[in-house]
Amino acid sequence: MNKGFLATMLAATLAASGAHAAPAASAPSPLFGRWAVDTSRMDMPPEARPKSVTLAFSDAGGGKVGLTVDIVFADGKTVHTVGTNPADGTSVPVVGSPEADAAAMEHPQANVLVMGLSMGGVPASTRVYAVAPDGKTMTEVVSFYTNEGKPAMRTHYFTRVASP
């Protein structure tokens, strides 16, 4: 894994800002809050792993979800991105990413977000974020195709660092 993988993760999380918000009558989605990746569990050499990756999902009102992404790469370079998108489950543009230029999201349950990414009209990855029942941890399962065209998956593990 390399910075390309992290760019994909960044693109995905930026695109996640288009996810459906939880129904208004419900309690706030347990996705809302700030999450940190457990970089020690990333499937890449320790020296290549980012120093930190944090995501913050928020209810932006009006059926929109806000997202902030902060990445500190192994070499110390940083990325800070903020986005707010409508939550209608249709494709939305992703701007500024070398890995994805469009995304579509659904929020089928309060604790689940499903996102599909593409680049140049070609599928890039599908990501499923799921918050554990205790609300303290979240997994991201990434389904993608290798350079050889084979399907593959990887999982990232997050810990809540702040509630909304």
How would you describe this protein?
The chain has 164 residues and is mainly beta. It is 8% helix and 50% strand. The chain has one helix and ten strands. Strands 4-3-2-1-10-9-8-7-6-5 form a ten-stranded antiparallel beta sheet, with helices on one face. β8 (122-131) and β9 form a beta hairpin. Residues 5-25 have low confidence and may be disordered.
How is this structure best summarized?
The protein has 1 helix and 10 strands; from the N terminus they run H-E-E-E-E-E-E-E-E-E-E. By secondary structure, the chain is mainly β.
Which descriptors apply to this entry?
164 residues, single chain, 50% strand, 10 strands, 10-stranded antiparallel β-sheet, globular, mainly beta
Q: Topology, please?
A:
Blueprint: H1 3-15, E1 33-37, E2 52-61, E3 64-72, E4 78-86, E5 92-93, E6 102-109, E7 112-119, E8 122-131, E9 137-145, E10 151-162
Antiparallel strand pairs: 1-2, 1-10, 2-3, 3-4, 5-6, 6-7, 7-8, 8-9, 9-10
Mean pLDDT: 81
Give the number of DSSP strands: 10
Number of helices: 1
Please state the CA-atom Rg, rounded to the nearest Å.
Answer: 15 Å
Strand line-up in the sheet with most strands: 4-3-2-1-10-9-8-7-6-5
Task: Report how far apart the termini are.
Answer: 31 Å
Largest sheet: 10 strands, antiparallel
SSE series: HEEEEEEEEEE
SS strand fraction: over 45%
